């Protein structure tokens, strides 16, 4: 087994762990890891490959969360289906943009979302609002925006989907994490399909990523369940992850643009 394969599997494990832990962030890690660790040269190929791997790992992690009752299926399905249309449109626009510029804009967006995730949330007594037409309508509206951003930046979009679900439904963070995995998988699949049409997926690396991600996802999910009882812990981990990776993405993409 070559060093490149081991790095790809290890990177996939880290991505899967992140998905299992916070229901997002997988693609935030996937694209930089594919570019700077695994060694994929072209940003768009890294984005397409990462989207496919994260999609499969998200669906795998969804099973564990569903067994623990952390998925609100009605709104999760609405969010995933409607948002996938936005993901297809967004990914088409993303493919047409310069790769380094796309990564730089992605880093800026992560900083904004990380700051929003640090805002304290009021306790809701551990109960989500009842599922009704108004809640599902709000979920669908937010899904279009989250799906479009997810597809444009070539990411599963968990870091957008989790707060979006909380905003639209009032559900607990752990339930938003579990429910978001359905949308992360569906958005990633739609994005990967779009990139595959243009030949922008490295299939062997994607398979290696998926294999490592299944293992990491199990560990992340177990840790997420334990942390769910601690107020705002998941949000703080989420925000810290976003800030760290955002800084690195901005540094690397900015340096590449300057060199060009």
UniProtKB/TrEMBL annotation:
GO CC aspect terms: plasma membrane
Keyword Transmembrane helix: yes
Similarity section: Belongs to the 4-toluene sulfonate uptake permease (TSUP) (TC 2.A.102) family.
Residues annotated as signal peptide: none
Protein name: Probable membrane transporter protein
Subcellular location, principal: membrane
PANTHER family assigned to the protein according to its UniProt record, in alphabetical order: MEMBRANE TRANSPORTER PROTEIN MJ0441-RELATED, MEMBRANE TRANSPORTER PROTEIN YJNA-RELATED
């Amino acid at each position: 087994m070559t060093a490149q394969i081991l790095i790809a599997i290890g990177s996939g494990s880290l991505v899967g762990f992140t998905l299992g832990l916070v229901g997002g962030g997988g693609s935030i890690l996937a694209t930089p890891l594919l570019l700077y660790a695994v060694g994929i040269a072209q940003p768009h190929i890294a984005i397409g490959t990462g989207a496919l791997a994260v999609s499969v790992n998200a669906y795998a992690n969804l099973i564990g969360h569903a067994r623990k009752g952390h998925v609100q299926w009605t709104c999760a399905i609405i969010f995933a289906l409607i948002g996938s249309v936005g993901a297809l449109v967004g990914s088409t626009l993303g493919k047409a943009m310069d790769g380094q510029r796309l990564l730089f804009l992605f880093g800026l967006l992560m900083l904004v979302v990380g700051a929003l995730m640090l805002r304290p949330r009021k306790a809701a007594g551990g109960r989500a609002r009842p599922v009704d037409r108004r809640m599902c309508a709000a979920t669908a509206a937010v899904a279009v925006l989250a799906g479009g951003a997810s597809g444009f930046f070539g990411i599963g979009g968990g870091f957008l989907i989790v707060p979006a679900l909380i905003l639209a439904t009032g559900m607990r963070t752990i339930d938003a994490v579990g429910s978001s995995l359905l949308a992360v998988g569906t958005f990633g699949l739609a994005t990967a399909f779009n990139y595959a049409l243009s030949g922008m997926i490295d299939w062997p690396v994607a398979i290696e990523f998926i294999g490592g991600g299944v293992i990491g996802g199990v560990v992340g999910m177990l840790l997420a369940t334990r942390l769910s009882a601690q107020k705002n812990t998941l949000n703080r981990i989420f925000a810290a992850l976003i800030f760290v990776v955002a800084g690195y993405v901005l540094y690397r993409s900015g340096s590449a643009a300057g060199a060009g």
